[in-house]
UniProtKB/TrEMBL annotation, chain A:
Gene3D superfamilies according to UniProt: MetI-like (1.10.3720.10)
Pfam families found in the cross-reference section: BPD_transp_1 (PF00528)
Record's subcellular location: Cell membrane
PANTHER family recorded: INNER MEMBRANE ABC TRANSPORTER PERMEASE PROTEIN YDCU-RELATED (PTHR42929:SF1), INNER MEMBRANE ABC TRANSPORTER PERMEASE PROTEIN YDCU-RELATED-RELATED (PTHR42929)
Chain intervals for the UniProt region annotation (Disordered): 1-24
Membrane spanning stretches: 41-61, 96-115, 127-149, 169-196, 217-239, 275-296
Protein name (database record): Spermidine/putrescine transport system permease protein
Main location (coarse class): membrane
Family: Belongs to the binding-protein-dependent transport system permease family. CysTW subfamily.
TrEMBL record, chain B:
Chief place where the protein resides: membrane
Family: Belongs to the binding-protein-dependent transport system permease family. CysTW subfamily.
GO terms under cellular component: plasma membrane
PANTHER family according to UniProt: PUTRESCINE TRANSPORT SYSTEM PERMEASE PROTEIN POTI
Residue stretches making up the ABC transmembrane type-1 domain: 60-246
Ranges annotated as spanning the membrane: 7-30, 64-84, 96-118, 124-145, 183-208, 228-246
Name the record gives this protein: Spermidine/putrescine transport system permease protein
Gene3D superfamilies the UniProt entry points to: MetI-like (1.10.3720.10)
Length: 301, 257
């Protein structure tokens, strides 16, 4: 199994060609392409690319009076996007997702750093323990916070025993951020861990030997070298946070909605599919910009 | 290597933060009282209530049907796609399409499929969720199988062909068995993701045929009931078992190869 894949992959077609004089290599590989790539590709074209193209095309049409779409080109969906009513929601979502990402980074980095330094056996256990909550039902994890934070909930009753409160923890932006950090923290820790783990310890030793204090070593050596992990982790937290509609609805109480709620409502309540599609396009545009930034930072690193 | 003492504070804080809410749910699921907030005594009564809840039972059956169906479809399509992408194509565009379902926000895929189903006038039901889950299930299977393919020994396939086996025989007797652990891991992943998936199911399911996450969502929206604690504990137990078994399996296959 030690043989390099690259040489194996190039050697295979050559030997086949020499053995099958009757059929050309091109013909054989066309059959292979059809058999292997055909079904999956056809599936993805019909159920992924066509739906996305439909959503994209809806952005320039008008909604019908009773829902549905009137195929009449218009730019009004895009001008509506700039209405402060909607712009505030988009900016607000950007803000909440960014705060959640920064908090996850501040908590996740030291955790990932320490996990990377643990002895091998503990490392595996610590990593599995980070991932485990992520594999449990998302709604159940959000529900746990309602039990903890609601009016008569456990946090308030504990504080009550100490003579404090009761406080209104639920249904504000802080709860939404808590829910976002809680849900996506594992996605921050894993890429950070991968980046820190790869780091050559000799670099840090060299920095220390040259007289740098630990803080200086961290800022000038460790952090720059783990920056790709930081960017990936931030992206992994930001992307699902930005488009989320469940956490704002269950923990935000509907008072402070995010762009995800807006999109959901356009499709399932207001039945304005063209405007809902335009909001979805705005969401995608933000994410594409972030992905390009990540690709750029990865190339620089 | 040095482990700065100070780092243990955020380290343990992370684990407490991750597990405290889960621990509370588990403890409260064994509560004998009616309040979801104060613990009165040990009992299994909420598990009994749960077993008698027809809505949850229906959701569970629907979820298992969808997950099983989409796992089979995802595994077949994803495996073929992985082999095709690794051996029969060098297209970057194809690679991008292959990972798109995994990186696309679920909400965008959900509305896309809703719009698509509406435009071809397909009635929604379990089949529409099954087809939708296969879109991302296939992408994850393909990704896992491709990793396995990158480590597969192509000389075995060459030997099989040299010894006169046709491409079909070689594929079924050499390539597939080599990829089996990757295919199994991919199938497990597709199944777990489908069982847990809410957003896409929420948009593509018929109101009369909800999956389990949709049932949980409507229960949670209408307030806190201790039945959900019991359900949550059972779901946690299942996920934890699956993850730990999967972990053991990968370690076993790693030590074998």
């Amino acid at each position: 199994m030690t043989r390099s894949t690259v040489s194996g992959a190039t050697a295979a077609p050559r030997s086949r060609r020499s053995r099958a004089p009757g059929r050309t290599a091109a013909g054989r590989s066309a059959v292979g392409r059809l058999v292997f790539l055909g079904p999956g590709l056809a599936y993805l074209i019909v159920l992924l690319l066509v739906p996305l193209a439909l959503v994209l095309s809806y952005t320039i049409f008008r909604r019908g009076r009773f829902g549905g779409v009137v195929y009449e080109a218009t730019g009004e969906n895009f001008t509506r996007l700039l209405d402060p009513l909607y712009l505030d929601v988009i900016v607000g979502s950007l803000k909440l997702a960014s705060i959640a990402t920064v908090i996850a980074l501040l908590v996740g980095y030291p955790t990932a750093y320490l996990i990377a330094q643990l002895p091998r056996k503990w490392k595996t256990i610590a990593l599995v323990a980070i991932v485990l909550p992520f594999w449990t039902n998302f709604l159940v994890r959000i529900y746990a916070w309602i039990v903890l934070l609601s009016g008569p909930g456990l946090v308030n009753s504990t504080l009550g025993d100490l003579g404090l409160g009761p406080f209104e923890f639920l249904y504000n932006q802080g709860t939404i951020v808590t829910g976002l950090v809680y849900s996506y923290l594992p996605l921050m820790v894993l890429p950070l861990y991968a980046a820190i783990e790869k780091l050559d310890p000799q670099l840090r030793e060299a920095s220390a030997n040259l007289g740098a204090r630990p803080a200086r070593t961290f800022v000038s050596v460790t952090l720059p070298l783990t920056l790709p992990g930081v960017v990936t982790g931030c992206l992994f937290v930001f992307v699902p946070s930005f488009g989320n509609f469940i956490i704002p609805e269950l923990l935000g109480g509907g008072r402070s909605i995010m762009v995800g709620n807006l999109i959901r409502d356009q499709f399932l309540k207001a039945r304005d599919w063209p405007f809902g599609s335009t909001l979805a396009l705005a969401l995608l545009a933000v994410l594409v910009v972030l992905l390009l930034l990540q690709a750029w930072s990865a190339r620089r690193a | 290597m040095r482990r700065p003492r100070l780092l243990y504070v955020p380290f343990w804080a992370t684990y407490v933060f991750l597990y405290a809410p889960i621990a509370v749910l588990v403890v409260m699921s064994f509560n004998s009282g009616d309040s979801p907030y104060s613990f009165e005594g040990l009992s299994l009564k909420w598990y009994g209530e749960l077993a008698g809840n027809a809505e949850i039972g229906k959701g569970l059956v629907n979820t298992l049907v969808v997950a099983a169906g989409s796992t089979v479809l995802s595994t077949v399509l994803g495996t073929l796609l992985a082999v095709g992408m690794a051996r029969h194509s060098r297209s970057k565009v194809l690679d991008a399409i292959g990972v798109l379902p995994a990186v696309l926000p679920d909400l965008v895929l959900a509305i896309g499929l809703l719009v698509f189903y509406a435009s071809i006038r397909m009635t929604l039901g379990l089949h529409s969720v099954l087809l939708a889950h296969t879109v991302f299930g296939m992408a994850f299977v393909a990704a896992v199988v491709r990793t396995r393919l990158a480590h597969a020994d192509t000389s075995l396939e060459e030997a099989s062909r040299d010894l006169g086996a046709g491409p079909v025989t070689t594929f079924f007797r050499i390539t597939l068995p080599q990829l089996a652990p990757g295919i199994a891991a991919g199938a497990l992943l597709a199944f777990t993701l489908s069982v847990d998936e809410f957003v896409i199911a929420f948009f593509t399911a018929a109101p009369t045929e909800p999956t389990l996450p949709i049932v949980i969502y409507s229960m949670v929206r209408f307030g806190v009931t201790p039945e959900i604690n019991a359900l949550a504990t059972l779901l946690l137990a299942v996920s934890f078992t699956v993850v730990i078994v999967a972990q053991r399996m990968t370690r076993l296959t790693e030590s074998l190869s």
